[in-house]
């Protein structure tokens, strides 16, 4: 039985992919990745590869998508499918490190202040967020601490330049992006799809950067349909 690797994003945990885990658990082994201990995306990728035996389908959201791509670079023979949701592929941009350091400092001052500033722009800006979803995501961020946040930000600052190897990814790849994702926009996912030969792009309507939980039914359906055809 293949393993479905579920990788959350920055200061996120397994609730991001819990609907998919429930749906797939009857016919696949489920592995919820932990990205809280390292300051390197390459190390995160290697730790998952070391921890799980056999072939795997790797599903990553945001930071988790970058880890998934790195896993495909390190050990392509074991990755039989990739799902990349609301993610990116370029190295850090000019001035990015200064902005991210400011968020690190804010997190050490108060994680409550961090979530109040960071979370709202991540959701669909065209509608009011569902109160229960917003509360769940807030609680998720607060379950992390400022040190975890800093380690993950350090990993993003030093992230690999995936543009150098996207065209070498040969496994079936599904790209998912919320139509209203302002952080990792649709055009960015089209660029990734253009580089990966065996890829498919699905745009999730009425969702921002947190498409897997903003529109979990649509996302689970898209991934399930794709997995049934690879």
Gist?
This protein is an alpha/beta fold and 230 residues long. The chain is 45% helix and 15% strand. It has helices at residues 18-24, 41-51, 63-74, 96-109, 111-118, 131-143, 146-157, 186-195, 211-214, 216-227; strands spanning 3-7, 29-32, 56-61, 79-85, 173-178, 199-204.
Description:
The protein is α/β, with parallel strands linked by helices and 230 residues long. The protein has one domain (3-93, 152-227): Alpha/Beta hydrolase fold, catalytic domain (Rossmann fold, 3-Layer(aba) Sandwich). It has helices at 18-24, 41-51, 63-74, 96-109, 111-118, 131-143, 146-157, 186-195, 211-214, 216-227, and strands at 3-7, 29-32, 56-61, 79-85, 173-178, 199-204. The protein has a six-stranded parallel β-sheet with strand order 2-1-3-4-5-6, with helices on both faces. Strand 5, helix 8 and strand 6 (199-204) form a beta-alpha-beta unit. Helix 1 (18-24) crosses helix 10 (216-227). It starts with a strand and ends with a helix. The model has no long low-confidence stretch (mean pLDDT 97).
């Amino acid at each position: 039985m293949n393993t479905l690797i579920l990788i959350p994003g920055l200061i996120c945990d397994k609730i991001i992919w819990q609907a998919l885990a429930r749906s797939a658990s009857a016919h696949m082994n489920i592995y919820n990745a932990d990205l809280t201990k390292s300051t390197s995306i390459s190390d995160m990728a290697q730790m998952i590869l070391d921890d799980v035996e056999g072939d795997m389908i790797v599903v990553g959201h945001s930071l988790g998508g970058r880890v998934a791509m790195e896993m495909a670079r390190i050990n392509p023979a074991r990755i039989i499918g990739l799902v990349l949701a609301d993610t990116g592929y370029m190295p850090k941009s000019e001035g990015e490190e200064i902005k991210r350091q400011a968020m690190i400092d804010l997190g050490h001052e108060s994680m409550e202040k961090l979530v109040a500033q960071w979370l709202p722009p991540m959701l669909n800006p065209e509608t009011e967020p569902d109160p229960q979803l917003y509360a769940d995501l807030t609680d998720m961020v607060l379950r992390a601490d400022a040190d975890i946040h800093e380690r993950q930000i350090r990993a993003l600052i030093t992230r690999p330049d995936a543009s150098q190897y996207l065209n070498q990814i040969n496994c079936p790849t599904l790209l998912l992006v919320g139509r209203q994702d302002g952080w990792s926009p649709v055009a960015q996912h089209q660029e990734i799809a253009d580089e990966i030969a065996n890829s498919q792009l699905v745009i999730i309507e009425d969702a921002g950067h947190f498409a897997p939980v903003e529109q979990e039914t649509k996302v689970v359906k898209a991934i399930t349909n794709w997995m049934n055809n690879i």
